[in-house]
Design brief:
This protein has about 575 residues and is of the alpha+beta class. It has helices at about 1-25, 55-60, 245-250, 330-335, 345-365, 365-400, 400-410, 420-435, 445-460, 485-500, 505-525, 530-584; strands at about 75-80, 85-90, 95-105, 110, 130, 145-150, 150-155, 155-160, 165-175, 180-190, 195-200, 205, 210-215, 230-235, 240-245, 255-260, 260-265, 270-275, 280-290, 305-315, 320-325. The protein contains twelve helices and 21 strands. Strand 11 (about 195-200) and strand 12 form a beta hairpin.
Amino acid sequence: MERRVLLAFLLSFFVFLLFVRFFGPESAPPAPPADETPVAASPASPPAPDVPVPAAEVAVPETPTETREAEREQTVAVETSRYVAEFSNRGGRLLRLRLLEHTDSLGAPLEALPQGDDLVNSVRPLDVVLPGDPAPARLTTALHEVAVDGRIRTGPVRLELRDGEAREIEFRWASADGLEVSKTVRVQGGDYRMGVSVSAIRGGAEQLKEVLFGPGIENESSVGRYQGAEQGVIESGGESRLFSFAEAAGGEAASLSAQAVGVSSHYFAGLLVADPGQRYEARLEALAIPWESFEIPPADASGSRDLLVAHLRSAGASEFTLFTGPKQVELLTELGVDIVEFGAWLRFLVVPIRQGLLWAYDVMGNYGWAIVLVTILISLLLAPLKHYSYVSIRRMQKISPQVKRIQEKYKGMKPTDPKRGEMNQEMVALYREHNVSPIGGCLPMLLMIPFFFAFYRLLVVSVELRHAPFVFWVQDLSREDPYFILPLLMGASQLIMQKMTATQAEGIQAKIMMFMPVVFVLIMAWAPSGLVLYWFANNLISMGQQAVTSRIMDRREAEAGALEVAGKGKRNKGGSRRKPTAGR
């Protein structure tokens, strides 16, 4: 029996390591060598050579047309309950977007767009590039006229929107060579989505254009064991695909018929999503920018930050939704984009557990206690399996001496010896006599492993857990416990559970079993606090259930023993009365 318990622990440990290796978040891929790393095209880059452009589209009219341009640079600030955005009429681009419901490492509203010097600002969301134009990137620096709800505005604009209130911002520009550009942004209070229309017309014909989102997402950059590197997103054919920096650099990230394109960090995303029924060409561009160019470089940063720029290309008017916000399942579902990595094989468990977690949060008001409540509910669901496992282990412990006697009886025989079959027959007969299954204690434990992995995936990728406090020293359930208190408590509870199981392991097996809690502590020391809390709470609940099961079995065994003693007494008394009668 002790071998089966040992195998169960080792198998669980092995499965866990495999899962973390193959299904956990990927760490940042190594950057290509410096001489192979592509650099994003600057605003003055020439048109791509592989883009055929009809001559009529680039022809300059003989007679100059009326120009439309603002006299000076001006900003448009938009304040809603969810974000504060700042647009500039220089290029009609989005400069900043601070998410009010999410914070950075200093506790300030999270800046969703990287900030830095001119190199970082060379690309901004909603930049428009005309691949077939003599100066393809001139629109990124042109001073557009600004109109709010159809009214021209010449100074700084500040819009405060109540939830549900909608406003329209239009950027207009026209050149002497007959190019007329209009970029309309529709914002609504309480919604991360912005409706965008882009038109570039010359001679009555729409020009080939690319709308950009970049560079990257998030002002801060955090990549670790449980936080994956930034990736590019392309939604095509009803499937969302994620691309690494290396894949984008190799030209692998492109689609001729895409519904969405954008960039994604571990918790946030910036997306250009086509309106229903629309499809555009899309591609991702790799962009490496030195860390010294950024506003907030990490303390140990060196080299360059690997970023991605999304391109949405259209020969006609572009109608799409700009989304810059958290990777929250409900929000992305409305966009028709699925980039939250729950895992294909575990989604059927992760989705209902997530719904339960959100419900528990509404009840408890704290995600830490919500995790505890969901753990209790899952334990109640799995209680029959756990009970069966504990009962099977208890029965195996009772017949362990008999099992050892049978094993000693056939000790030293080769596996090919025919008498080994007799040993197996005796073992099977012993199991049947005591109603014991040799895998009864292991199988239920293995069936519970998917629930652990489902919770693991949920807690690692859920933006709801980001910076969510629990109690006292645990102020971020998505990060490791800074003082390793929860991992130590989890290890102690694991050791107590092991003692309660009271296996008959001896020698090296006993040492391995005692070392297993230490191994689990080392594995979970740098895991998200929410995951360690789940495991610790599950251990406490399992200890309670195991104690109750043991007490029930003790009472039943005592009652069975009392009945057996009473039955023997009656038989003995009956035999004493019959003997004198027989003597007569």
